[in-house]
Inverse folding.
């Protein structure tokens, strides 16, 4: 009778541990998916702003058709990444960010463009959107860290293996973006 009680107690402990670990993994996975949707919203906002920016620049920088075409091509490629492919999305977004910088560099060569109110507003909107993407990326990567820790630590790693939970990929900047983000802004008067 005592042995049966010990066995049932042990089985109950194992079952509770399993379900606790499983629910923790589910919670972490849902948090990662939710954080990714935050990034996705900001990326779509950026995609929506780019055509307006291109149209504004077109009127001033008629000789820069290649630059504008590159931005359009990078935007199309970024929008075409299959949903959930974090690594490919990060690569496409890094290319798009680089082409957007080339548009903002054009404003230095075209003073009228630099002074255009629509261009200034779009530039500010894109800057705000980039800040939101960075914040969303930090939240996403934090949730990925939590999920990956659960997938790799005992006893939840056993549950993860049985239930098919996998490590999630981080949404990372490329090396040029990382260096630019680490560099303090230059201020000149």
């Amino acid at each position: 009778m005592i042995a049966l009680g010990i066995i049932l107690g042990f089985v109950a402990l194992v079952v509770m541990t399993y379900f606790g670990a499983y629910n923790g993994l589910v919670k972490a996975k849902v948090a990662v998916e939710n954080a990714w949707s935050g990034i996705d919203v900001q990326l779509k906002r950026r995609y929506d702003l780019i055509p307006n920016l291109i149209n504004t620049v077109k009127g001033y920088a008629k000789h820069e058709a290649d630059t504008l075409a590159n931005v359009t091509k990078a935007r199309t490629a970024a929008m075409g990444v299959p949903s959930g492919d974090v690594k490919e999305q990060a690569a496409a977004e890094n290319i798009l960010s680089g082409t957007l910088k080339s548009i903002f560099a054009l404003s230095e060569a075209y003073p009228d463009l630099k002074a255009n109110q629509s261009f200034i507003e779009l530039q500010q909107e894109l800057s705000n959107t980039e800040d939101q993407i960075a914040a969303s990326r930090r939240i996403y990567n934090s949730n990925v860290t939590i999920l990956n820790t659960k997938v790799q630590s005992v006893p939840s790693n056993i549950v993860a293996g049985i239930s098919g939970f996998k490590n999630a990929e981080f949404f990372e900047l490329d090396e040029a973006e990382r260096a630019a983000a680490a560099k303090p802004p230059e201020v000149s008067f």
Remarks:
- The chain is about 80% helix and 0% strand.
- The helical segments are 2-60, 65-79, 86-109, 111-115, 117-152, 156-163, 175-182.
- The radius of gyration is 24 Å.
